[in-house]
Amino acid sequence: GLASIKEICGRLKQEIFPKEDVLILGTGGLGRLYEDQGVFDVYIPDLVLIGLRVLAEKNKDISSAGAGCR
Description:
By secondary structure, this protein is mainly alpha-helical. The chain is about 50% helix and about 5% strand. It contains two helices and two strands.
């Protein structure tokens, strides 16, 4: 639950990124459950979908650029 998520985020900050400013991102539908609990620095519910759209657009650009080189 909530305590486990806070523990994991805290340990990641301490053990893996001890000298860096870390931004914890929440994403997905269930992330909304913890949006107001102080677990995430930023909550972006559609982050994965946004990333997939960007990837598809880049792939389309690459495919278009190579179309004339057959």
